[in-house]
Amino acid sequence: MKLKLLLALFFCMPCLSSLYAQSEKQEQKKYNYPQKTLQALRVQEAPKIDGELDEAIWQQADVATQFIKNRPNPGPLEKHPTEVRILYDDAAIYVGAIMHDVSQDSIYQELGRRDDLGNTDFFGIFLDTYLDEINGFGFVVTPAGVQLDARYSSNGEDWSWNAVWESSTKLNETSWVAEMKIPYSAIRFSSKQEQVWGLNFMRNRQSTREGFFWNYVDPAKDGFANQWGRLEGLRNIEAPLRLSFTPYISAYLERYPTQLQNPDKTSHAHNFNFGGGMDVKYGINDAFTLDMTLIPDFSQVQSDNRVLNLSPFEQQFDENRPFFLEGTELFNKGDFFYSRRIGGGPVNAGAIYDAAYEGYTVTESPSETKMINGTKVSGRTESGLGIGIFNAVVGEQYAELEDKEGNRIKLKTQPLTNYNIAVFDQSLKNNSYVTLVNTNVMRQGSTYDANLTGLLFRLANKGNKYAIDGKAALSQQFHPGDTDRGYMYRVGAGKVSGNFQFSASHTLYSDKYNPNDLGILFTNNSSEQEVSFSYNIYDPFWKMLNLYTTVGAVHERRFRPNKFQNLVVYGNVNGTFKNFLSAGINVNLEPVVTYDFFEPRLNGRVYAFPVNYTLGGWVSTDYRKRFATDVSLTYRSFDEHNRHSLSYGVYPRFRVNNQLSFNYGFEANNRYDDMGFVKVLRYKNEQGVEWKEPDVVFGLREVRSVYNSLSGSYTFNNRMSLRLRVWHNWSKVNHTKFFRLQHNGGLEAYQYEPEQSPDVNYNSFNLDMVYSWWFAPGSEISVVWKNAFEEQLNEVSPFYFDNFSHTLRSPQSSTFSVKVLYYLDYLTLQRKLKKG
């Protein structure tokens, strides 16, 4: 079967030349709509934002209409007209849109939280204020009045960005109306007397799952902002003084267990904290903004989904803290910034296990550090130069140790640390750019400092059909008396638009390249080559609305020493049927024995990874329906013992009505006759000197993991919601045999009798309940209750419900917090004081 799959993939390759010829002809047949232009109308009196559009001035404005379908079948004009007008004055631009339809029943209007779209129609406006065809702003509103906003850049779209703006909607018998006020303080633009902005509008008609743009956006063409129209007529507008304060007060109560050695008699301790802080935003000039957070409080962010990690690499967590999510598109360029490093684990946490502290018991060792403040300065000049400066300071952290006599010592695990990022991003023609990035970590005292400098570029031809891109970086760690330097580079080229696309790339990481003080990289010391070919059909055919196909291969060698490491051949096909059922199939082959230099956890040793293949698939039903579900299934087989794995997941969702909905997720990952690292055995004499080469022990094991998640939300209105999220993970590892790793990467049977069983029984549980009320623009009251439990034992419990019951009975850590943020705009406050 493996041979057949491999041959099938390779036999597809010769077909690509004929597909290429066909695609070139099809691309010539594509709709060729001219770029559209809309005139903005200056007004002396601002319209009232009430969803009525009853002021006479609206009828005098230029009308944007004849929207063009983007999905599911790109190209045709809309059947139900959309009409949009734009007004402006010295303070803001005003958008009035009428979306005609069949009846109110055809207008979907599910309620959701801010930036949560749901099953609904929507209308959006997109602005490229510097006309660089890369960067832009998006403002979206639904018929229920839910607001969404986003930033657009070469990194894609960032929905975590939030601005303060006004909107109002109204439903009529055969239409719905959206009215917006976007103040100039919410966007950035140049100081030119007469300006031309990139402009587009989008309408989503959920009853037919159709998406329409005013200026045609071709899904076969790479890029988004480069496919917008133009907004003209903006004259003599100036950026206002942009100064706002968002002070907060918060109360935090924590209850956590003590004496975990005896769960039946566990007592609990309590911790109460009342505090406050502030976020400040200041417009340095018309383009640049200072964003600062003082004494930040992240107690209310969503809990991490912690899992049993058997790999040699750290677990990567999502970022949920607002300060690190909003407006960070510049700092994320090149993927050199992993924000969880700031406020993450102490850099010297492992020092508590040094031989010098043998005989001491660790009584307290915080797993996270505390951020004191953070500052961001970002913006873009008229010439398209984006500049970003990010700085954060993390305070000292200590662990406490106690000896048998009760003597306690404090050990500094984290010195006072400064994190800094500087980015210079020059936008070029044809959706191209060149970017310089520098990250720097400076620690007080003798702990080492770190620095990384990176360069990125993308150059595309005039039609954005072909492009080359690349990046390079130098990492440095400055230890007392020594410096570790490493480097990486990547260069790639390909056809990025059209039905037929291809790419080729070469990437190299040196053995000393290490960006992990402020970034994240799992493996270095490698040289990788990849080629991929894809053929996509964007127009409906047969029973399909669209179809996307890809085949490719990755060849990887060790950089030092130069040895073969890995070969992967992959392919996938996915698409959407005309009944809006989506499905996909993927194949992954490693047709030769490859070499894993990381699983042994010992430098210079390697594990010969067996030939294997993976076959997977997924199905997603129509989300318009009240009940919908996603299903996934993956099977992997190895040429080693009876080694194989089976993973599957079911993710149903049920919408009770436009206010109440539930999502459930179930995943099971089963690895049979799995092979993995157990321990490095070191042989030392009485003086602590190794007298024999270490042995690396592997184990034959059964690994089973079950993940359950349930989330529900009740949205009272477009400003108030209640959310519940529950997560539970149970994983167990049973070892049946042990092996010793040989120098050629093979395994030989080994009689291993460990002092402590390597078997694992792991449980983690999170519960987050969040009440949010946006009582005024930019202002929020939130009440959060969180419950958490994590446990890892060496005695395996065989049944899931026994583990789940044990988890619920075990001592939990609980927190309850209340936080109030209030947005204060300086100009608004000044006007009110003058009137008063």
Describe this structure in words.
With 836 residues, the chain is mainly beta. Among the domains are: 1-30 and 522-596, no CATH class; 31-235, Immunoglobulin-like (Sandwich), CATH 2.60.40.1190; 314-487, no CATH class. 6% of the residues lie in helices and 53% in strands. The protein has a 24-stranded antiparallel beta barrel. Strands 1, 3, 6, 7, 8, 9, 12, 13 and 14 form a 9-stranded mixed β-sheet that branches. It has a 5-stranded mixed β-sheet with strand order 2-4-5-11-10, with no helix packed on it. The termini are far apart.
Helix/strand layout:
Layout: H1 2-12, H2 15-28, E1 37-39, E2 41-42, H3 57-60, E3 68-71, E4 82-88, E5 92-100, E6 122-128, E7 136-141, E8 147-153, E9 156-158, E10 166-171, E11 175-183, E12 194-205, E13 210-213, E14 229-235, E15 243-258, E16 267-283, E17 289-294, H4 322-325, E18 361-364, E19 371-380, E20 385-394, E21 397-402, E22 408-414, E23 417-428, E24 432-443, E25 449-460, E26 466-479, E27 482-495, E28 500-509, E29 526-537, E30 544-558, E31 564-577, E32 582-590, E33 594-596, E34 607-609, E35 612-620, E36 627-638, E37 644-655, E38 660-684, E39 690-717, E40 720-741, E41 747-749, E42 760-776, E43 779-793, H5 800-809, E44 813-821, E45 824-825, H6 826-835
Parallel strand pairs: 1-14, 2-4
Antiparallel strand pairs: 3-13, 4-5, 5-11, 6-7, 6-12, 7-8, 8-9, 10-11, 12-13, 12-14, 15-16, 15-44, 15-45, 16-17, 17-19, 18-21, 19-20, 20-23, 21-22, 23-24, 24-25, 25-26, 26-27, 27-28, 28-29, 29-30, 30-31, 31-32, 32-35, 33-34, 35-36, 36-37, 37-38, 38-39, 39-40, 40-41, 40-42, 42-43, 43-44
